[in-house]
Amino acid sequence: MENKWIAHERNRKESKINMLCIPYAGASANIYGKWKNICPVEYNVLPMLFPMRETRIMEEMPENVKGMAEMFVAEAKEIFEKPVLLFGHCTGAILAYEIALAAEEMLGKKVVGIVASSANEPGEVPKETKELMNAPRERLIEYLRKEELVEEEMLEDKDFCDYYLPILRADFKIYGTYKQKRKKQLDCPIITIYDKEDSKINERTVDAWAEYTSGEYRSYQVIGGHYYMEDPKQIMQIMEKFMDEYMISKQGGDL
Questions:
Q1: Is 147 in the same domain as 202?
Q2: C-alpha distances in angstroms, 232 versus 34, 224, 235, 239?
Q3: Assigned domain for 86 exists
Q4: Measured between alpha carbons, how far is residue 184 from residues 101, 125, 181, 197 in Å?
Q5: For the domain that residue 110 is a member of, what is the CATH number?
Q6: Which long-range contacts (CB under 8 A, 24 or more apart) does 233-242 make?
């Protein structure tokens, strides 16, 4: 797919659903790169590429989440020519919710579902986004070291930090300043996936996603911590189940 918002994709004409895979703050589309080799063939795997990274290194991040969602929908209309499932990990689930709203408002297109992975409901923004969006260099490096998100060798590389830390700070800023004016309900299924031992979330705020839809809400528990999706086998089983149910409902005329 020739679109600046998509990278590391698998796009087949025969596939039934476009699955937009949205990375968490500080990550890029490449975290979903392996999915195209293992995801059920009924899905097109479309990892979302944010500004400031890879081929978009010279582009700045939008000022806020809502603006980014609207920009994406305006510039990637072709993705919505097929049914769209939104998968967002952590902060990416907030953007998934805003993209669903923007697609309906701007294109009259309803997504077929949202998968919120390791994510509290949108009104509960991860606290580190607010704490770190204006943090100095040393504090960001300390965070990355604690989370084990970047190898120590890279954290000691000045050139890498000069490139990467502004990306992390910009991502934290758009999510750290995110505020809902009012909660808007969708009518698509919402699925949450999380590890109950994940200290970044809790069951109450995860299950509050149910309030964001008039449709079905379903929750799955997995093992592997906050970044369990680095081994996506558990997710693929859930995706297979969703596709089976989607095809049955489509045959019945519900979708």
A1: no
A2: 9, 10, 5, 10
A3: yes
A4: 8, 16, 9, 29
A5: 3.40.50.1820
A6: 233/38, 234/193, 235/117, 235/193, 236/38, 236/39, 236/40, 238/115, 238/191, 238/193, 239/19, 239/39, 239/40, 239/43, 240/40, 242/85, 242/113, 242/115, 242/189, 242/191
Q: Is the same domain home to 194 and 145? A: no
Looking at the 3D structure of the chain, how many domains does it have?
2
Domain that holds residue 53: 17-123+182-251
pLDDT in tens, the chain (255 residues): 789 999 999 999 999 999 999 999 999 999 999 999 999 999 999 999 999 999 999 999 999 999 999 999 999 999 999 999 999 999 999 999 999 999 999 999 999 999 999 999 999 999 899 999 999 999 999 999 999 989 999 999 999 999 999 999 999 999 999 987 678 999 999 999 999 999 999 999 999 999 999 999 999 999 999 999 988 999 999 999 999 988 877 766 554
Task: Collapse the DSSP code of 23 into the 3-class scheme (helix H, G, I; strand E, B; otherwise coil) and give the result.
Answer: coil
In a 3-state reduction of DSSP, which class is residue 15?
A: coil
Q: Within 10 A of 231 (CB to CB), how many other CB atoms are there?
A: 12
**Residue in 163, 130, 158, 223 with CA at minimum distance from that of residue 28:** 163
Phi-psi domain of 97 (left: phi exceeds 0; alpha: psi -120 through 50; beta: other): alpha
Q: Do 170 and 188 lie in a common domain? A: no
Report d(CA 245, CA 198) in Å as an integer. Answer: 28
CA dist., res. 73 & res. 100, Å (int): 9
Q: Are residues 33 and 156 in the same domain?
A: no
